[in-house]
Hints:
Layout: E1 12-16, H1 25-37, E2 43-47, H2 53-61, E3 68-72, H3 78-87, E4 92-96, H4 103-110, E5 114-119, H5 123-143, E6 148-153, H6 162-172, H7 187-190, H8 192-195, H9 207-227
Parallel strand pairs: 1-4, 1-5, 2-3, 2-4, 5-6
Amino acid sequence: MNTRNRPDIAQRVMTFASSKGGVGKSTVCAAIAGALASRGGEVAILDLDQNQTLYRWHQQHGASLTGITVLKVDPENFNQTLLAAKAGGADTILIDVAGAYEATMIKAIAASDLVVTPAKLSEPDLREAAKLLGEVNAFNQRFGSSIAHRLLVNEADSLDPLYQRHALAELDGSAIKRFSNLMMRRAPYREIFISGMPPHLADKGRAPVKKAIAELDAIVDEVLAVLSQPTKAKAA
C-alpha cells in the first residue's frame, strides 16, 4: 500500500527517542523504515545520532535500500533538513535522535506526530520511557498540541518467561501506552547493520526473516493506526 494515497497519514513524522543509550533506536528505526518502504512508500530518515549509524548504513548499502533515504543532520540546521525531507516527497519521515536528553531531542519531539521509545523490559529503560512520556505530555499541555507517545518493547523473549509477563502487566498498569506487539530478540534485526538489509529487504526464504517480517507488519499496522488519528496543529 502506498501511503501517498492515504492523506490521513501523508508526510507524518515519527521520532525514535530515549534519553538512554543502548535501547535499540537505530535498529528499530531501520527495521520499521524497511517495513514502510515495502508497502510502496518513500521513507526519509533524519539521523541526529552523533554515531551516525543510519547515515553510514545508507552510505554503504543505499543502492539496495529501495524507498529509503537517510539524511545526516547538523543539529543547527535541523529545521531546514526537515523541510527539505518534506519537500522531497517522503511519505513518512523518521527521526533517530541521540541517546541523551538535549535540545535536538526537544526539536525532534516538537516536529513529530508520534514519538516512539524503544525499551527493553528493564527498570532503567522503562524509567527513561516514563520520563520521556512526561516531557511529551508537558509539551502538549503547554502548546495545545497532540503529539502521541508509544513505548515499543524491544528484544523481548519469544519464550515469554514469567518475569516478562510480570513486567508487561506492571507496564500496562502504568500511564505509559505501548504497542501491543513486541519486537522479539531475533537474528534478522542484529543482521541489519551487517548484511545491510532490514527484514523486508532480506532473504524472505529464511524462517527467522519471515517471523521478523510478520512481527514488523503487525507493529507498523499499529503505528499507522496511531498516525491516522486526528491531531491538533502543533505550535511552531
